[in-house]
Amino acid sequence: MNPQLKYILRCTLCGREYTPDPFRLYCDEEHEPSLLRAVYSHKKLEIKENLPGLFRFIDWLPVERYLDAKGRPITYQSKNLGHHLGLDNLFISFNGYWPERDARIFTCSFKELEAFSVLARVPKNNQKTLVVASAGNTGRAFANICSQHQIPLYLVIPEQSLSAMWSKDGFDPCVRLIVVGGNGDYFDAIRLAKIISQLDGFFPEGGAANVARRDGMGLPVVDAVVTIREIPDHYFQAVGSGTGGISAYEANLRFLEDGRFGNKKMKLNLAQNIPFTPITDAWKSGSREITYLSEIEAKERINKACAKVLTNRNPAYSLAGGVYEALVDTHGEMYGVTNSESEKTRVLFEELEGIDISPASGVATAALIQAVEAGKIGKKESILLNITSGGYKRMRQDYTLNYLKPDLVFTPQEIETDLVKERIDN
After folding, report:
1. Three-state SS for 7?
2. Which fold has domain 74-108+212-397?
3. How far apart are CA 71 and CA 26, in angstroms?
4. pLDDT, tens digit, 9 for 90 and up, residues 117-162
């Protein structure tokens, strides 16, 4: 690797390498789908205390500049929940708003980490408009940060996610909200965003294929390892696309190269919200392929799930570098969690830890409880629980929230290239 380069991009399937390119998402070789992975020249992480928020970890982010960021992950050892579960070494990565612990992710989700990383990767002189599809947290993060920094954004969401589009500061006109109405879901939003991103003057964020997204989402593990001073034995997180699980795994691999924090591969324990559990179902059946669901059945199941942010119909599971390979390499496990389990766990967490958490974080915590009850976790083992979103209730107490209004509404039937182009152009 050229020592003059901060990082290179390497294909996880064929190994082909590319120099840094903020818009590259895929390998050029003709082979099965694969992810590119950022390989950094700094093998030993140096924390930059003088940089704001999450950019203290800039060595392991594929960016050449930083933005003004208040928030970053907060890692602490849980006494109350740990004691309740009989665990001596339960560590919590809290990603949200909790001023008493100096947790200042004002969008209340770790998706803010990915948004800052993705946006800092885009050159300052870029003239094109970013297009992002979201089921909630990602969209809120991008809308907030693009508003703060006047970065043009077309955000595409299903109508059921409108209530998640809020900000304590309001929104800049550079952010335009496109909504899929009717019975549209996240998959429909992704389809619409893909069409818009291919129009002149736009470019796609890229989802799991964007290394900046994954390395931003890996920061809870980065912060936890440098705080605990070792790689944990277990990692728990709720997933939709599975990108967060891949990100945690990739961060772990970097620490193995760093060499100062042990040589463990932490076991990935990932969870989904019953009845929409495509990754859990595939993994438990021993399959590398996601079982196909008809659109009607998929939408029925999605509508019954309380954690809508976990309902991705096309997860990053089968491809090279994806969730399946990460689970195999870490001897990982998948869990299914019901709405009632998530809700009970959220109540328990708030009682014991003193802060509210989201339905998705309830799913992750409920999976941890399932693992403990099944005897899969040792009392002395170190566990990292990623509370990917929390502090909504506290946020509403402390601030008056402003909501983003739609600029355009499409039905799922209207998601056709010519019609989309005509309406966007007008």
Report:
1. strand
2. Rossmann fold (3.40.50)
3. 30
4. 999 999 999 999 999 999 899 999 999 999 999 999 999 999 999 9
